[in-house]
């Protein structure tokens, strides 16, 4: 898998790009949604699932567009840019570069290291059966709760857009507002920190 699409190249359903470090993928799913994921966990999506998207194409006019069989349903609105290429970077950011610099991005860049690769399954060893009474094992300790993700609101954000970014579905904004104690989803402010469960 490549980390890049250049002018005229496209992803068909089921095809993916992968970052050079292998931690991030961009997949045009069979349901028509274009999803950016970290080791299988969705981080950003175009929310085009159910729209019968057939391909995602970097056009010669500078625009990156998702098409059904007969019409466009999502685009980067970058027509007029020259020498464009779409790159899935090792920092998790999806960027459409043009000759004069970045033209569009998913704004999903991270500063920390990529998530670790999943642990390999341990090999099965030969087992000797012991007929002695088994010693009861102590109950396992409760697994610690994972740290919730957070997101700092920037100017122009809406709860719908934030939910689309993290869950691929804007209608799930209530999950974020409930976890963050936001009484009115229309009243969020730049600098406000939201909990993303």
From TrEMBL:
CDD domains linked to this entry: LysM (cd00118)
Segments for region (Disordered): 127-151
SMART domains given in the database record: B_lectin, LysM
InterPro entries: Bact_Kbp (IPR052196), Bulb-type_lectin_dom (IPR001480), Bulb-type_lectin_dom_sf (IPR036426), LysM (IPR018392), LysM_dom_sf (IPR036779)
Top-rank lineage group of the source organism: Bacteria
Residues in Bulb-type lectin domain copies: 2-109
Alphabetized SUPFAM superfamilies for the sequence: alpha-D-mannose-specific plant lectins, LysM domain
Lineage, broadest ranks: Bacteria, Bacillati, Actinomycetota, Actinomycetes, Mycobacteriales
Stretches with biased composition (Pro residues): 135-145
Annotated signal peptide: none
PANTHER family noted in UniProt: PHAGE-LIKE ELEMENT PBSX PROTEIN XKDP, POTASSIUM BINDING PROTEIN KBP
Protein name: Lectin
Domain LysM span(s) in chain numbering: 149-196
